[in-house]
Amino acid sequence: xKGGVFYWQPGPGFLGEYTMQFERPDGxxxxxxxxxxxxxxxxxxxxxxxxxxQTTCKPIGPKCGECSLRAQCRYYKEVVRPxxxxxxxxx
Length: 91
Ligand code: SF4
Prior knowledge:
Blueprint: E1 16-23, E2 29-36, H1 42-55, H2 74-90
Antiparallel strand pairs: 1-2
The structure holds iron/sulfur cluster.
Iron/sulfur cluster (SF4) binds at residues 56-57, 62-64, 67, 69-70, 73, 75-76.
């Protein structure tokens, strides 16, 4: 696909994990990994996300030090961890 908008509405037979490849007009290829969660888990998953956002990954002052998603978190890797390293070096 080059440019435009991509719509994809998977049916129940498409549950699982997929990797899609897109190509930008400048030739750069982008891989997008999509995980599709069965509908029966949506409410529980939403509750988990809301609670996680209220207790750990808060909009102001996220508790990255006690977060179990640090290894996967891009914000932690690119923003928080470099600051921690800089502070540790300054001591
Ligand atoms: S490590 Fe990432 S997901 Fe966890 S609290 Fe910090 S910003 Fe949120």
